[in-house]
Predict the structure.
Amino acid sequence: MDRTAWIAVTLCTLGLIGWYLYVGKQSRQLKQQPHQQLAVTASPTPSAANSASAAPTSSPVAAPAASAAPAAQPTPEFAEKIETLRNEDVELDLTNRGGGIREAVLLNHIAQDDQPVVLNSKNQPPIGALIDQPNTPRLEEFNISREPDGGIKCERAADNITIRKKFFFPQSTQKKDNFLAEMDVDVVNGGAQPYSNPGYFVSLGSAAPIHPKDYSYYTRLVWCVDGKAKGVDVNWFGGGGGVLGIGSRAPQAFYQQDLANADWAAVSDQFFTTLVASLTTKGNGVWGRRFDISPEQKMFGLAGALRMPAFQLPPGQTYNARFEIWAGPKIYHRLARLDHNEAEIMDFGIFKIVSQFLLNFLNWLHGFLGSYGWSILALTAVVKIVLWPLQDKANKSMRRMSLLNPKVQELRDKYKDDPTRMNQEVMKLYKDYGINPVGGCLPMMIQIPIFFGLFKMLGQAVELRNEHFLWVRDLSQPDTVAHFFGVPINVIPLCMAASQIWLMTMTPKTGDPTQRRVMMFTPLIFLFICYNFAAALALYYTTQNLFSIVQFYYNKRQPMPTLEKKQPAGKRK
């Protein structure tokens, strides 16, 4: 390689080493930061005495760790009592401690330990607990009982204020879904004086990674306003150094954000979510805190709450609020049937339309083929067939450019001391022969939204969890078959890199020799980036490479294109 190529390769290598060092430094900082485990108040009896502590704060707020850290949660002076709501897909374990859902057990989704997936935890605040101040760790006792219609009632009375909550599965055929529950709240003022509530929080419970090596950015606090979802992930709480010191931020104890007319809020991991939507009035804020799960593995969970507006209650009157609770997998087509844009929890990003279409099409193919592995292969084939005419035209353009390469090299040698003149002459040469130098890049540009749409879709498609294909035990995880000195051996990404190298050897040699030499490192860089991605994504890209190889073989069997100068417009007959 010439000097320029060596410089480019050296810079790429130094960039990768620098990135490793930066990530390692950030990881050590995260590991060393003290994180208090979230302990949230479920104080179902609001009172004017704690009004000041529940007052809304500015948006967003990050208090110092010392002042924001909750005190140790006192041991309850009453025995815990559990009542269960259950259907074919989910079991909701309701507790008298705070009057909410202690755990949601997903009966048909298996975790890594071959046990059902459990959302929230008995160590975290129950889903649906009413909270005056999230940093006050008290869970008051409710009387909990089963209603004749199968619902669960939680009730508590103090200071002439009675709170009644009822949990049940809605029976409406239009909105019925096994993962959807409803919580109705009644606050009754039985005293002689008006009751003023300054606003309260509804606990969302908590979310945590399903697998130890899940990417941390999937564990998020999410909210939706005007049909658009926003959120923060657990990495937000660790602070950051910014770019060259710009935008640096210290670690944050908690997150709090004022909102206007929030439809819902949720805590979410890669495949599952607990989402609370208010049916009677819009929320006006969210709150969240990160907590440690396994500091050694740098695993963090996230607990949150949705803040509701203040209300006034005259003597003898009742305040009513209704909430829908989705506690289950992020199944796009089922969430899309709900009324408050709940499907936005999927976080498909700027290529949302592409991701939605590809997910629906993948599920449609699965209905015929019965295997998500074969469905991904079929999806890849369909995408390749649709793009075949563009790729065919690009391949022909590259073959014509390869014929022009000797002339291009002559110009590079002739004007090597005058880069500006050299580029002008090269572009004139392309124009004289009617060749578009970027014609071979067009199919790649079109595939970018498809690739990133698939990346977002396959990264969150719960349908792929625990789906087997050939030697792959779980299409949503890397296809690790063994470990070599602690390094996982993932077969499909290695096949992907090999097929990419094979494809590059078949591609006609065009463009600057230095650029071609640098591009030789693309498969290695791509392997580095994609090595621990889900097997489904690596399977798609490997299959696409194989289809491209087939198409190149087909093009090579076609007659070699001719290279003729275009005649000026005035001389054409």
